Amino acid sequence: MEPLKLGIAGLGTVGAGLLELLTANGAHFANIVGREIRITGVSARSRSKARDAATAGIPWFDDPVALARDPSNAVFVELIGGEDGIAKAAVEAALNAKKHVVTANKALLAKHGFELARLAEKNGVALNFEAAVAGGIPVIKTLREALGANRVRRVYGILNGTCNYILTQMQTEKRPFEDVLKEAQALGYAEADPTFDIGGFDTAHKLALLTSLAFGTRVAFDQIHVEGIQSITQADIEATDSLGYRIKLLGVATETESGIEARVSPALVYKDSAIAEVSGVTNAVAIDGDFSGNILLVGAGAGAKPTASAIAGDILDIARGLIVPPFVTPTAKLKAHKRAKLDQHYGSYYVRLALYDKPGAMAAIARRMGDRGVSLESIVQHRPQTLHAPGAASHLSKDKAQPVIIITHETTEEAMRKALETIEKDGNVTERPQMIRIEEL
Ligand code: NDP
Ligand code: HSE
């Protein structure tokens, strides 16, 4: 059988990982699909850059679009990144030239996934993106194939390795946020612009793709509520730990009667829940199908090797001739995404307030919550060690503010937001209240 010929654009963390895999496991790969995999062209920004990737003897293309159009390859692998620009131009060029495309680029797909899928379908080629969601975990394949016959009710998970790594290190080693972020970047986990990670946008890109696959809707990144982990302090980590919780950045999409509630935010989960145990760069994705029940997939969420594994799996499918609609449901049948109002979200909340130490301040807080029908499970004045550490939250001691931790009973998000707005306006707190949803998973 003819070799399967690949053009690979992007030789960074992921591209180098793919070349390493194809070198290490090329013979095994050829053995199982019955055809050799041959790289007929590579492209990156700088030809002269020293690289670990073994590219000697492989034709070099300065322009990824030229590689995408080059007739020497049948599969274009896009590992550059970015929601527009050269990555989009190259993927479109490849699809228009009737090439199969494999990409790890969730930003591109979250913004243009519907149009690109339509183009792939029109040209009868594959658009595979297993590596775009949760690194090495085969979640796209699970939704497309194994669970394809289910109606999915909810999909959620820890979808960003960088954030989970940061939160875990803050928890276990009490290391400062910025130090751990630098380490995650050095390990190749973070996006080129790490704001995408810590701001929650990378998780939202992935959740947008999962939502489309799970509920048969058009990819709608702009319909996702996004909060990042920048506001999480060591004080939150300690307070929640003492109450029996872990903080995780979660992406959650649920189909409700009023539409899809899709949100990315830090969340409190019980320490003894399966998701709380997912630590470091590990990701987890839970899929609740009407016949399958709840399934939890756990594995490495970022890094060269796990990501390369996912990309190679996509190439394997193409080598075997397996081509399915990119979002399971053919694009002509994908529904519009109807957004449910987050105000109506019903659940419990963690609140951390920096409360002025003066008579009546605590009573005023309880009253304001009560005015909005928010009932309190517990309210405690908390003095974590870190608040008294050198350089930590010095404004609190200066203003004689006391950290107060509240756990509420279940209520609506609207009631919580309005209560906290009033508390802030009353002037009893020295900074914006911290509010984190508690997830019953
Ligand atoms: P890197 O920044 O490490 O690599 C990007 C590559 O793209 C580099 O080789 C760079 O060239 C090349 N490149 C950049 N601009 C151009 C251009 N204009 N023309 C040609 N080549 C260009 O990124 P990653 O490998 O980490 O990520 C690649 C993709 O994979 C992204 O979409 C990312 O979101 C996704 N991803 C990353 C994961 C990870 O763990 N890192 C996991 C899952 C997905 P040069 O080497 O010369 O600078
Ligand atoms: N920056 C991403 C993460 C890479 O940390 O999860 C994997 O998609």
Task: Summarize the structure in words.
The chain is of the alpha/beta class and 441 residues long. The protein has three domains: 4-132, NAD(P)-binding Rossmann-like Domain (Rossmann fold); 142-300, Dihydrodipicolinate Reductase, domain 2 (2-Layer Sandwich); 342-438, ACT domain (Alpha-Beta Plaits, 2-Layer Sandwich). Helices cover 37% and strands 24% of the residues. It is built from 14 helices and 17 strands. It has helices spanning 13-33, 64-69, 85-96, 106-123, 139-146, 161-172, 177-186, 195-198, 201-215, 234-242, 304-320, 361-371, 394-398, 413-426, and strands at 4-9, 37-43, 60-61, 75-78, 100-103, 127-128, 152-158, 225-226, 245-256, 259-270, 282-289, 293-300, 346-356, 376-381, 401-408, 411-412, 434-438. Strands 7, 8, 9, 10, 11, 12, 13, 14, 15, 16 and 17 form an eleven-stranded mixed beta sheet that branches. Strand 4 (75-78), helix 3 and strand 5 form a beta-alpha-beta unit. It is elongated and about 80 Å long. Residues 387-398 have low confidence and may be disordered. The chain binds NADPH dihydro-nicotinamide-adenine-dinucleotide phosphate and L-homoserine.
